Structures are given as C-alpha cells and as structure tokens.
Structure prediction request, 419 residues.
Amino acid sequence: MTARQMKLGAFLWATGHHIAAWRHRQAHATAGVDIDHYIRLARTAEAAKFDMLFCEDAAGVREANVNIASQTSRSIGFEPISLLAALAVQTSHIGLVSTASTSYNEPYGLARTFLSLDHLSGGRAGWNLVTSASHIEAANFGSTGLRPHADRYERAREFAAVVAGLWRGAETSGFNHEGRSFSVRDPLDLPRSPQGAPVMVQAGASDEGRDLAARTADVVFTAAQTFEEAKAFYDDLKGRLAAYGREPDDIKIMPGVAPVVAETEAEAQEKYEELQELIPDDVGVALLSSYLSISDLWRYPIDGPLPELPPSEGMQSRQALVIEQSRRDNLSIRQLARHFAGARGHWRVVGTPAQIADELEARFEGGAADGFNVMPSYFPGELDAFAALVVPELQRRGLFRKDYEGTTLRDHLGLKRPI
Ligand SMILES: Cc1cc2nc3c(=O)[nH]c(=O)nc-3n(C[C@H](O)[C@H](O)[C@H](O)COP(=O)(O)O)c2cc1C
Prediction:
C-alpha cells in the first residue's frame, strides 16, 4: 500500500487570490470572463496532477461598497458551475468542484445541475455547500435580509439531506420528501453518478458548520492561520464523525494556502512585497469590515486597534480568526487589513520550493490537514510556479502522486462510493 499522500485543490479566482492581483503586471482586466484563461489554468493544474479545480461563489457583488468591489480581483466572473461544465470537456481527470449556496437555491435544481456536471465529466463533480453569509446576496433573492445563522444551517441540513437522497435515489421510481423548508416529489431524470454520488464539500467552520460537515461532507475547506488553529480544527472535526457512524478518514480536511514561491527566498519575498504594496488601504479596510461583519470600521483610526465588536450573524469563524490575530500580534487596523487582505484570511507561505514543501509537510504530517486548497496569488504566474517548483518537490518526497490512478474525483481523494 502506498503511504498517505496529500490532496491538492487548485482554487481558481479570475486574476488571482491576492486582493491586489488585478493590479499586478501579469493581470488582464477580463480574466474573469476569459474562457481561454481558465482552460490554460485547468490544463496546468491537471498536468501537475491536482485532485480538483475549486471555485467559490457569491450571487452578487460581494464587497459592501460597489466602488471598492470594482477595485478587487473578482468584480466580474463566470457563474462557476457553467464554467466547470466548459472545463469538463477540456480536461480528462481533474475534479471539478463548485460552491453553491443552500440559502439561495432549491435542492432539486442544484442536485440536478451537479449530477449533470458529474455525468458530463465522467464522475469528476463536487459541490461545496455554503450557507452564504452576506447581506448583498440576500438582497438579490427577494429576501428581507440575511437569515439568522441558526436558521441558515437548519435549512442547509435539510437541503443537504434532500440532495444526498436525490443522488442516491437517481433512477428509482419515487422520492417524496416533505420537510420544513422543502418538498420534492420526483427522483432526478438522470442515471446514478459514475462515482456513486458527486463529492460533497463543505465550507463553514462555526459549531453548526462543523456539525453539518461531520454529518454530510466528504471534504472540508477551511481557513487557518497557524498550525495550532489548523490542528485544533482538524481534531475537533474528525472527533465529531463517530457520532454519525463515520470513520476519521471519511472526511478530507483541506485548508486554504496562499503560496508565493520562487527559486530563492529573496526573490519570493520580493514578489510578495510587490503585491502587498499594491493594496489600497480603503480596499483592505472594506474587506476586513466584511470579515468582521461591521460596516463602519472606516470611522476608527486606521493606525489604532480594532474596536470592541458585536457577535457576528455572518461568518462567525472568520470574525473570530481576525480578532484572535489582532490580539495575538497587537496589530492596528491598517496592519490587520493588509495581512488579511493579502490572502483573504487564509494561510500565507512565502519562500523557496523546499521551504513551502516543508511548511505543507509539517501540517500534513502533524495531523492538521489531509491536503490543501492552493490559492495562487496571481494567475497564471503563481499557479505555474507552484506546478513547476513545489509539486515536483512534494513528489520527490513521496507526499504527492506522480500520476492519476483512477478517473473519478472520489478515486483521487480516496473516498468511499456511497451505497
Ligand atoms: C473557508 C471558507 C470558504 C467559504 N467560501 C464561501 C463562498 O465561496 N461563498 C459563500 O457564499 N460563502 C462561503 N463561505 C461561508 C459560508 O457561507 C458559511 O456557510 C457561512 O459563512 C457560515 O459560516 P460559519 O459556519 O463559519 O459561521 C466560506 C466559509 C469558509 C470557512
């Protein structure tokens, strides 16, 4: 049996994950709607044997201030499931995972769309379940506002159960779900998935989010700055599985990592500084405000500390992460904004291929991750660099595959086929 190897996602995002990627000299303004750009990224990731492509989503203009949103790297972009359907026919092995919200969809429609993507791609689809945490999206779906956190998760639990049932029950004669939020009569008009069912990913790290993951997810996407945070999350989530009759290995935990890599440490640092210098303060503060779920952070002195904050109805896990970091490192609003804006709250590693491989290996072997969702700072340059420099180093260490052994996303991730 081969030794346990890490899983890698290539998280796609228009011009790149760094908040100022759109200002980088490699960026082009229409990257978000340029299919050739995405085909190139998908082929690079597949040639490097990544497990999956990963797309986030928000059905709206996410930053509260539209002027600020237009200054970030994702002011325009394809609807991600449509994008992945196009990439399905341009690739042959790599998994195709898209985010979709349980708050602004219905389970029948979403189950059908993902199962179609799964058939289109020969069993490579995955759904990243989110409940969505922004008021902006709520305003686009006839809602009077963001539903409370607990209500969103209650709806998500029923939603996930209906989708899983539809995927399992494809080809059966009746379905008949009558629940609190949804009623569904028919089975899907599609055969059973080539991989048993599309892969279920979950992102949301509050207590309710973790519980939902333990109940339903195959993969968890999460954000953790330090080894200790990552390890605590990993142990907590794996510890919740037994209550649902599941084994620790039934879930793969893949935190985000935002690498900046170059042949020498000095070059990597220079690349990173170049990006950090491009962050406008108002953009950094607006993004920090959205993580903290407050709208008037700009009123406070930018070189002073964070004010006391009310508990979040939005993304509780991200708010806690920011507050924790501000206390730990005694950072001002400007410093925090730059720190979080750069990697959008995720773990940043800057260095040589060996240094980055060391960092990934430490979290993987230390029991803090089963793999990583790689968030290149700018495209295509940083994905190219990771594929050309870091992947071979991981392969040399026996930590990552040299070739695909199966054809479906479940094969790559080493997941059981659902019965
Ligand atoms: C790592 C991570 C990635 C997320 N990605 C998205 C996303 O792409 N779109 C979205 O609407 N919400 C996203 N969310 C937030 C989810 O909507 C989540 O269900 C909601 O914020 C509640 O999160 P909580 O359980 O951490 O409080 C993400 C959350 C995390 C932790």
About this structure: The CA atoms of residues 133 and 314 lie 5 Å apart. The longest strand covers residues 252-261. Residues 56-58, 99, 101, 130-133, 203-206, 209, 221-223, 315-317 surround flavin mononucleotide (CB under 6 Å). Residues 149-169 form the longest helix (21 residues).
